[in-house]
């Protein structure tokens, strides 16, 4: 079992006919993901990668039964694409596009209220349920089906830690990239809740970084609900200089907010095992699960 996706998830890709959309949709199909449609305005009625292309999301959903969308359109059009998918009733939207304008995301957040849609991203590497499906751009090859859930703000660290967990003799139930942009869809706390409810997930790895308040919100969630399964965290950016943007929009500390020291303290107070080096995550998960089994 996985969270958010399974082998029956039917995916459409908004922006599939562009280079990046074509490349990553083909990789998703090779992995076994059920891609049933593409959506590109002006190209409806064609076939691309042997699936039908539609001008709009709503008819694509009506004709193919798609229940998930991957968004692969430029930042200026990404919010409109997300809102179109939300209004079409798509249950899961994964937005890979990064640097979507903040005010555009405010409109997206307003559209999500009262809807039945879960948004992952933008600026997300996607969702991977090993052996079942992947929606996004993450590399594959070292993942294995297993019982460790991963929620992450870092694509490259996710790939590294997936490999560590596999080499530790374990596997992953699902990996979820919540996205690095400052305003995004589901957060770490909601992912923890989903993993706690998943009977096949025995432990959760949280990969955070400096900037934003995701990790503190996750700590507050754990303080309120209790630690229902072991949570192991690694937070990148301990030695980053303050008040300097590091890499992407969400990675910055200002006036003492968003620094790794405060995030680490909050998570440890909530009962989370926080490791000091990314290279220690896989072995720590193995030890924690071994201790829990004794």
UniProtKB/TrEMBL annotation:
A GO MF annotation of the entry reads: succinate-CoA ligase (GDP-forming) activity
Name one process (GO BP) from the record. Answer: tricarboxylic acid cycle
A Gene Ontology cellular component where this protein is annotated is: succinate-CoA ligase complex (ADP-forming)
The EC number(s) this enzyme carries: 6.2.1.5
Q: Where is the active site?
A: 248
Q: Which InterPro entries match?
A: Cit_synth/succinyl-CoA_lig_AS, CoA-bd, CoA_lig_alpha, NAD(P)-bd_dom_sf, SUCC_ACL_C, Succinyl-CoA_synth-like
Q: Which NCBIfam families match?
A: PRK05678.1
The family annotation for this protein states: Belongs to the succinate/malate CoA ligase alpha subunit family.
Its recorded name reads Succinate--CoA ligase subunit alpha
């Amino acid at each position: 079992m996985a969270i958010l996706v399974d082998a029956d998830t039917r995916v459409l890709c908004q922006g599939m006919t562009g280079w990046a959309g074509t490349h990553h949709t083909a990789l998703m199909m090779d992995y076994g993901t059920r891609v049933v449609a593409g959506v590109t305005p002006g190209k409806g009625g064609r076939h691309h990668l042997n699936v039908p292309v539609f001008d709009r999301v709503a008819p694509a959903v009506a004709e193919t039964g798609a229940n998930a969308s991957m968004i692969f359109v430029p930042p200026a059009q990404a919010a409109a694409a997300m809102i179109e998918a939300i209004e079409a009733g798509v249950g899961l939207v994964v937005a890979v596009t990064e640097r979507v304008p903040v005010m555009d995301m405010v409109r997206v957040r307003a559209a999500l209220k009262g809807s039945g849609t879960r948004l992952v991203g933008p600026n997300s590497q996607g969702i991977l349920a090993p052996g079942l499906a992947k929606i996004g751009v993450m590399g594959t090859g070292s993942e294995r089906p297993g019982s460790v859930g991963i929620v992450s703000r870092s694509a490259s660290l996710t790939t590294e830690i997936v490999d560590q967990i596999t080499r530790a003799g374990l596997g992953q139930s699902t990996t979820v990239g919540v996205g690095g942009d400052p305003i995004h869809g589901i957060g770490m706390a909601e992912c923890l809740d989903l993993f706690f409810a998943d009977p096949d997930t025995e432990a959760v790895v949280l990969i955070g970084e400096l900037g934003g308040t995701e990790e503190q919100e996750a700590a507050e969630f754990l303080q309120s609900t209790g630690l229902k399964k072991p949570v192991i965290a690694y937070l990148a950016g301990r030695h980053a200089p303050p008040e300097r943007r590091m890499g992407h929009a969400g990675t910055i500390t200002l006036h003492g907010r968003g620094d790794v020291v405060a995030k680490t303290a909050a998570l440890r107070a909530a009962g989370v095992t926080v490791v000091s080096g990314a290279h220690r995550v896989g072995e720590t998960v193995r030890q924690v699960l071994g201790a829990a089994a004794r």
